[in-house]
Amino acid sequence: MNAELLLDLIDRSPTPFHAVATAKDLLTQAGYAPVPTDGTPYGAGLWYAERNGSALIAFRIPENINPATVSFRISAAHGDSPCFRLKPNHQLQGTYSRLNTEVYGGSIYHTWTDVPLALAGRVTVREETGLVSRLVHLNRPVAVIPNTAPHLRPMNSGLELNPASDLIPLFGASGDILDQVAAELGVERDAIVGQDLSLVSYGKGFVFGPEGEYIFSPRLDDLECVFTCLDGLLSSRSPENVISLFALFDNEETGSLSYAGAASTLMRDVLARILPDEGQRQDALARSFFVSADNGHAIHPNHPELSDAKNAPALNGGVVLKYNASLRYVSDGFTGALFGEICRRADVPVQIFANRSDKPGGSTLGRLSEAQVPLRGIDIGAAQLAMHSARETAGSRDVEYLSRAMTAFYSENFTLSADGVQWN
């Protein structure tokens, strides 16, 4: 069942560093290898390139490509989610030992209180020969953000939580959490000289509902799209003379303006190594198609008035095609029709998302990536509830729909031109 496989991937991917490591494991099992680092163009084969340990592009180059007619099929998703990042000086000692954190991303603050938090991320370790990066996941409750009782202040009447005072995690009576990290890694505490650690929601997600129709899990935004895009790449076979790529970016929740984000040169750099001739590459991009995959808002069961009644997707209703007049998404009428046809041919239902006209909504990877690599494309995703909560809800059948849609995207034999698309 795809929903259970998704939950396994989410459980293995508490941070973007772990998401990349999990993707590399799956890619390696499928025969993909790290790109050569000798500066030469990338040749035929199954490859992946990573950046900063938190972003990755996997791609499949067929034998004997014809630069005059070759095209790219590209999908992208992000591996980061809202969480609480430890500050460099992370320990607060007093009556209790607490953890000095900053909010990462647009969290729904109250959902992170009174729930168990695990610790995960990357640390830099000093060894005899230099410094090395090590991943760590303390997959157990290590901290909690305690609420204030309503006897002490009015918690149920519009109280705003302050990240600097209300959202400081309780760790213990004393001690340093990096002692636990060192023990987990089997190194001395003094050997840890740098850290990129986060407190994340503890516990594996699960399927629920009378017919198992819903998923309740951390990090559905956007690991659901990571899973389904990667599954589509690995389950598909590219048409002749098509180069297929999947990009896993970091830092979408904070704007993507980073070394490993969608606004970086990572995609552009990889494509330049695949097709070094700029003219051939630009011609190929004109024949190519891009899918920006990030979950969207389902109509809320308790607040349907917050959605546009005619453009509100539902859980288990199929793949969501996103539109926005202010160009927060890359979709337009043509690209929506093309992806809708891909889904129709794969017997995958589609539904439309557009915000209420008085709500700005969010943006995603597509526009930022397109600033580096000009492509026609579409924004898609699965419908979900409680986006940016410590735990989110989605439809279990939508996982299968999205995987099938992405497999069809990579497999369908069509040719794009300036004024249309032709199935071959």
Structural domain count: 2
Distance separating the two termini: 32 Å
Total number of helices: 9
CATH H level, superfamily name of the largest domain: Zn peptidases
Q: Order of strands across the widest beta sheet?
A: 1-2-3-13-4-14-18-16-17
Shape descriptor reads: globular
Major sheet size, sense and barrel closure: 9 strands, mixed
Using only CA atoms, what is the Rg? Answer: 22 Å
The CATH topology of the largest domain corresponds to Aminopeptidase
The CATH architecture of the largest domain is: 3-Layer(aba) Sandwich
Mean pLDDT: 94
Briefly, what CATH class of the largest domain?
Alpha Beta
Structural description of this entry:
Helix content is 25%, strand content 31%. The chain folds into 2 domains: 2-81 and 218-423, Zn peptidases (Aminopeptidase); 83-201, Aminopeptidase i, Domain 2 (Roll). The longest helix is centred in the middle third of the chain and has 16 residues, at 220-235. A hairpin with a 2-residue loop joins strand 7 (117-127) and strand 8 (130-143). The protein contains 9 helices and 22 strands. Helix 4 (220-235) packs across helix 9. With 424 residues, the chain is α/β, with parallel strands linked by helices.
Topology:
Elements (H helix, E strand, L loop, with lengths): L1 H11 L3 H14 L3 E2 L10 E7 L3 E7 L9 E8 L4 E11 L3 E8 L12 E11 L2 E14 L26 E3 L4 H9 L6 E10 L4 E3 L5 E4 L2 H16 L6 E8 L16 H9 L3 H9 L2 E5 L2 E2 L21 E4 L10 H13 L4 E4 L11 H8 L3 E6 L1 E3 L6 E4 H16 L2 E4 L2 E4 L1
Parallel strand pairs: 1-2, 4-13, 4-14, 14-18, 15-19, 16-17
Antiparallel strand pairs: 2-3, 3-13, 5-6, 5-10, 6-9, 7-8, 7-10, 11-12, 12-20, 16-18, 19-20, 21-22
